[in-house]
Write a structure and sequence with these properties.
Elements: E1 3-5, E2 15-16, E3 19-22, H1 26-37, E4 42-45, H2 53-57, E5 62-63, H3 68-72, H4 79-90, H5 96-117, E6 122-123, E7 137-139, H6 145-157, E8 162-165, E9 170-176, E10 182-189, E11 193-198, E12 201-204, H7 213-219, E13 227-228, H8 237-244, E14 249-250, E15 255-262, E16 267-268, H9 272-275, E17 279-281, H10 295-303, E18 309-315, H11 316-321, H12 326-333, E19 338-340, H13 343-349, H14 354-368, E20 389-401, E21 404-405, E22 412-414, E23 420-426, H15 446-464
Parallel strand pairs: 1-9, 2-11, 3-4, 3-12, 4-8, 12-23, 13-20
Antiparallel strand pairs: 5-7, 6-7, 9-10, 10-11, 14-21, 15-16, 15-20, 17-18, 18-20, 19-20, 22-23
This protein binds flavin-adenine dinucleotide.
Amino acid sequence: MIQRIKSESDISWDVETDVAVVGGGACGMIAALAAEERGAEVLLLEKEKKVGGNTSLSQGMIPAAGTRFQKAAGIDDSPELMAEDIFKKNNYESDREITLHLCRESKNLVEWLVDSVGIHLDIVTDFIYPGHSKHRIHAPSTRKGEQIVKELRNVISNRKNILLVTQAPVRDLVATEDNGGVIGLEVEIFGQGINRVRAPKVILACNGFGNNKEMLRKYIPEMAEAFYFGHEGNTGEGILWGMELGAATQHMGAYQAHGSVAYPHATLLTWVVVVNGAFQVNKRGKRFSNEYTGYSEHAIEVLNQEDKVAIEVFDDRIYHSVLGFEDFNQCVEIGAVRKAETIEELAAKFQLPPDELKKTLESFNLAAEGKAQDPMGRKNFQGPLKPPYYGVQVTGALFHTQGGLKVNERAQVVRPDGNTIPNLYAGGGVAVGVSGSGVKGYSSANGLLAATVLGKIAGEEAAKSLKP
Ligand SMILES: Cc1cc2nc3c(=O)[nH]c(=O)nc-3n(C[C@H](O)[C@H](O)[C@H](O)COP(=O)(O)OP(=O)(O)OC[C@H]3O[C@@H](n4cnc5c(N)ncnc54)[C@H](O)[C@@H]3O)c2cc1C
């Protein structure tokens, strides 16, 4: 229960800061840096031993339109086009103004991260995720979010006005009785117990409820028992606090899943394998969907198959095209990727009916050569698959939730009537994303878009509003 007090004299504080940030993922670290840059003293609190959250598990792919990196690579893009791609994927369900605002701010975010903060990002031009009409993903060279986290962490450790405390789960917010405005929080610091922090501005950057079974059963029952591939710290309290204070929520059933997690190895097999031409079969050796529609909704298709698994089939060309991806390399290292000289041998390795798998391959290849319609309606191919072949057993997994608190363009948490909850900001997985209402609306990299752009806005706005 949020502590409600009549006046500040009713409570004694242990610590004081200008801006308290709850959660040390991309959203929280970026918010802390943006607030500090505008002169605020920041306390950044992370529940776990290490910062990073889902951001460190991600591929670090940040979408942005109109950046100087795109221009240098000859890519003509615009925020409006980027927003239109997002709307097409979410069936125009996400808030129009907020979506456009995030897309417009994405350029500033990426250029600020590189030029001012010193994070290393490149424009990715060697593949394009389904749904993006332009090359607009900016990512570290390793294609790992961990690299962004490490670099942000290093920068933060050199900023004297940011105090980062790990092993410090925030347990509750403190708000006033009259208008529900937030004036601080309670944090349990390892070895110290509960500390009351006076903070005139609080930013919730503690992601969604991927690791909260009760909330999943309530809002996303179809994924409540699925394998959760996200960070354990994301247990939904930021959203619950906002709700208790009367915040509006939206699209609580929205989430990102992934239809290609190596199983039982529990390692992500990058979706680029599919983008570059792979297909998936079930245990009967049959394809069961158009793999190209999107990795998020494809998770449901995989989970609907026998034993909730599929075999992803590809060839030597695809294998070498993805070898640079660390996730894929890891799958190779741990033995999840199995090679066979013939399709019959591949069938034997995964105990699939060889005749059926051969028929599936022949039908896929005909479509890939443009000689027949694909029975699953797939239109994007990179040519027929040729021996030797490779296979990986995969399952569908929940990555993160996309529904949450409604925020305005300044990242302030709002009530159903549009008024703000004083002093409270949110970004990343705490705030409703731009993925519409379910699993199908997730466009690749929507997660980091909301985390990074809203994080920067929340930090800047919180710091700006401190000034008289
Ligand atoms: C495997 C995987 C791959 C992904 N790949 C991509 C990608 O390439 N591009 C993309 O756009 N998105 C991707 N996503 C989604 C993306 O990672 C998230 O949307 C994004 O990282 C969210 O950032 P965040 O800062 O909101 O949350 P996080 O990075 O999860 O950080 C939240 C932090 O808050 C902490 N916390 C929680 N509760 C408390 C509390 N009470 N007190 C203190 N701290 C607390 C958590 O421990 C955590 O460290 C991926 C997700 C996964 C799981």
